[in-house]
Amino acid sequence: MIKLKTKEEVELLRENNLLVSKTLAEVAKYVKPGVTTDELDRVAEEFIRDNGAIPGFLGYNGFPKTLCVSVNDGIVHGIPSSYALREGDIVSIDCGTILKGFYGDSAYTFAVGEIDPEVQRLLDVTREALYKGVAQAKAGNRVGDISAAVQKHAETNGYSVVRELTGHGLGRKMHEDPEVPNFGTAGRGPVLKEGMVLCIEPMINAGKKAVVFESDGWTVRTRDRMPSAHFEWAVAVRGPGADGKPQTADVLTDFTIIDEAVWQNKLQLKKTER
Ligand code: MG
Ligand code: MG
User: Fold this and answer.
1) What is the pLDDT of residues 31-77, one digit of tens each?
2) 193-206 exposure pattern, b = at least 16 Cβ within 10 A, e = fewer
3) Which of the chain's ends, N or C, has fewer CB atoms near its CB within 10 Å?
4) Are the CB atoms for 222 and 73 separated by under 8 Å?
């Protein structure tokens, strides 16, 4: 059953996803060679609690940490550990919050220092695929319009789309209906309506689409060990505009503050090199 949110509920979800965005921006300051993924997790947990919220993933189905941190061939659900980031790694960081009875859930894939231009292209295309999907999140469209747009952009760029994990509705629960796959057929699936809040989250592999579920019970990685990227926004489907036409979605996640933190971090790293 798909729960439509009131305007007030959308604002609470915005508050959550803004906090997730701020948390990811805080974490971004620490993404550099030598930092362990456990250290990033501690930064996130402290930041979330200092802001009066609860980490949304901690204890979710028994997940042991605040962040999902997935490095290189890790796709999603990696458990923070003593692994120290290395120059050239990419790291998907997925973060959730619980505040005022609602969830936040957004993800960003960071470059660690200088990365291979081919891997940068994977990040760029995955992010573009997210934007293409979000552009379809309009009242009257269907979930399949989002899915098809994401898949088309990834595949026309020579990449493949993970099938086993999908986006989802977001609300008082982290995973609500509908599922939002990153592959599918335009014109199929549930009709999008005002008040639906969706997490759109392309997981795009540089190589083949096959995945492996690791024996830690959480980590999902690529079978061929090629890198994978992941970006996630929470968006609210809006009602018609003044012209009566469907409006583009209200984006509840704020990547601009994360991008700014990434840029500042890069400048800082360059300075310390000199
Ligand atoms: Mg997420
Ligand atoms: Mg999600």
Assistant:
1) 999 999 999 999 999 999 999 999 999 999 999 999 999 999 999 99
2) ebbbbbbbbbbbbb
3) C
4) yes
Domain parsing of the chain, residue ranges? 7-273
- Structure letter (DSSP) for residue 36: B
For the record, the structure tokens of 109 come out as 């894939």
Q: Between 3.90.230.10, 3.40.50.2000, 3.30.70.20, 3.40.309.10, what CATH number should domain 7-273 receive?
A: 3.90.230.10
On whether the CB atoms of residues 13 and 101 are closer than 8 A, the answer is no
Radius of gyration of the CA atoms of the chain, in A: 18
- Regarding pTM above 0.90, the answer is yes
Spacing, Cα 105 to ligand 1 middle (Å): 5
Q: What is the pLDDT of residues 193-245, one digit of tens each?
A: 999 999 999 999 999 999 999 999 999 999 999 999 999 999 999 999 999 99
Q: How many whole angstroms from 148 Cα to the centroid of ligand 2?
A: 18
- pLDDT tens digits, one per residue of 157-195: 999 999 999 999 999 999 999 999 999 999 999 999 999
Residues near ligand 1 ion, CB 5 Å cutoff = 94, 105, 107, 232
